[in-house]
Amino acid sequence: MSLQNKVAIVTGGNSGIGQAIVLELARQGAAVVIDYVVHPEATEALEQQIGKLGARAIGVEADISKVADLQRLVDAAVSRFGRLDIMVNNAGIETRTSVLDTTEDQYDRVMEVNLKSAFFGTQIAAAQMMKQGGGGRVINITSVHEDWPMPGNTAYCLAKGGMRMLTRTAGVELAPHGILVVGVGPGAVATPINLSTMNDPAKLKRLDAAIPLGRMARPEEIASVVSFLAGEGASYLTATTIFADGGIMQGSVGL
Ligand SMILES: NC(=O)c1ccc[n+]([C@@H]2O[C@H](COP(=O)([O-])OP(=O)(O)OC[C@H]3O[C@@H](n4cnc5c(N)ncnc54)[C@H](O)[C@@H]3O)[C@@H](O)[C@H]2O)c1
């Protein structure tokens, strides 16, 4: 168990990729604060599942688009488990709207939930890590769309592109404190955020055909990368993004 005695927060931790990250960090021995905004019953089930693994977890309801709620998450980690070693900024939303039809409210919400939360999540986690000493890890779940345009999802791409520069800049700023900041950029992952594609066989076939590995990722295949980045084996990685995308960004249209 590579993360024994470590304490982690995972935002948006009771579904999809976040849930898989929570479980994998707990399997590796970390105590985990599971942030959520909906489905308390899913959080409770996850807490119980983790208890059966012999690990520790608590669910905390917090809207990570609000700085005060992010602070409450860090306070919960410290009061319940004594410290914070790993901050996973995972929560995210998308609107699937183009630059032509995105409303001001949609734009603001996508920016708040994806980018503002990661910025202040990094800031508040880093403050705690510096206070306790010994460094720490901030892991931002970005996307291939931190770099790769997705027409029809413009605000999301902007937010993920912002997370790319947050990861790089905060990684450089926080390096002297031993706080490593890394992004994980998934390709297409089979989670609730992609239900419309997963429920449309023709669309799913087109997507699978565009991915060199021929299929969407399972959430566990992203969680294993996060777990590696949280551990000792990733001690020289910072200010960069690891893409776990089945090769989709390098894919080419066959002739
Ligand atoms: N599934 C994919 O194909 C894919 C690809 C690349 C990146 N991502 C990123 O992975 C992350 C997780 O997405 P997912 O695929 O697991 O989808 P998901 O919808 O299951 O997870 C998103 C989570 O964020 C939570 N959330 C939303 N608003 C919140 C708020 N204000 N406060 C706290 N939590 C909030 C949701 O409740 C949910 O639990 C997102 O950042 C997403 O952009 C997903």
Can you characterise this structure?
This protein has 255 residues and is α/β, with parallel strands linked by helices. It has one domain: Rossmann fold (3-Layer(aba) Sandwich), CATH 3.40.50. It contains 8 helices and 7 strands; from the N terminus they run βαβαβαβαβαβαααβ. It has helices spanning 16-27, 40-52, 67-81, 104-132, 154-174, 195-198, 201-210, 219-230, and strands at 7-10, 31-36, 57-61, 86-89, 136-141, 179-186, 240-244. Helix 2 (40-52) links the parallel strand 2 and strand 3 (57-61). Helix 3 (67-81) runs parallel beside helix 4 and helix 4 packs parallel to helix 5. It is globular. The structure holds nicotinamide-adenine-dinucleotide. Nicotinamide-adenine-dinucleotide binds at residues 11-12, 14-18, 35, 37-38, 63-65, 90-93, 113, 141, 143, 186, 188-189, 191-194.
Keywords:
255 residues, alpha/beta, 7-stranded parallel sheet, 8 helices, 7 strands, 45% helix, 15% strand, binds nicotinamide-adenine-dinucleotide
How would you state the average pLDDT, rounded? 96
Beta-strand share of residues:
5-15%
In this entry the ligands are: nicotinamide-adenine-dinucleotide
Report the CATH superfamily. Answer: NAD(P)-binding Rossmann-like Domain
Query: Biggest β-sheet, characterized?
Result: 7 strands, parallel
CATH class: Alpha Beta
CATH fold-level name: Rossmann fold
Number of helices: 8
How much helicity do the residues have? 40-55%
The second-level CATH architecture is 3-Layer(aba) Sandwich
**Radius of gyration over all CA atoms, rounded:** 17 Å
List SSEs in N-to-C order.
EHEHEHEHEHEHHHE
| Structural class determined from secondary elements | alpha/beta
Stretches where pLDDT is under 50 for at least 5 consecutive residues are none
- What is the terminal-to-terminal distance? 47 Å
Instruction: Assign an overall shape.
Output: globular
